[in-house]
Write a structure and sequence with these properties.
Structural class: alpha+beta
Number of strands: 3
CATH superfamily: K homology (KH) domain
Number of helices: 5
CATH class: Alpha Beta
Number of domains: 1
Strand order of the largest sheet: 1-2-3
Strand content: 15-25%
CATH topology: GMP Synthetase, Chain A, domain 3
Largest sheet: 3 strands, mixed
Order of helices and strands: HHEEHHEH
Helix content: 40-55%
Distance between the termini: 39 Å
Shape: globular
Radius of gyration: 15 Å
Length: about 110
């Protein structure tokens, strides 16, 4: 159960990371669309689990590895944006959100 503070920080981090992926780290994602679907912040606000949806899915693993390698740069950019609102910038742990692929698979199976 997330506290109200955790939920507010999750929404703030999700919004700012979405803007960072759109505008500032195009060298890491190289022509693919990366969207931040969910952010979950730990109770001590020190770790943020960031779930990413990557399209097109053919280059998903390659793009995901470059995002993980660029995590310190992304955290620095996030810190510059939210540094006035947060005392500690959370450490970013990235995960692939494959819920859309799962939904497509279920739809395909139901149509058969």
């Amino acid at each position: 159960m997330d506290s109200l503070r955790q939920k507010k920080i999750s929404r703030l981090v999700q919004k700012d990371l979405g803007e960072i992926f759109q505008r500032e780290v195009s060298d890491l994602i190289s022509g693919t669309m990366v969207s931040v679907t969910t952010v979950r912040v730990s109770p001590d606000l020190g770790i943020a689990k960031v779930y990413l949806s990557i399209f097109p899915s053919e280059k998903k693993n390659e793009i995901f590895e470059s995002v993980k390698a660029g995590a310190p740069k992304i955290r620095h950019l996030l810190g510059r944006r939210v540094g006035k609102q947060l005392r500690v910038i959370p450490e970013l742990h990235f995960y692939i959100d494959d819920s859309l692929d799962y939904i497509e698979n279920i739809d395909r199976l139901l149509k058969e």
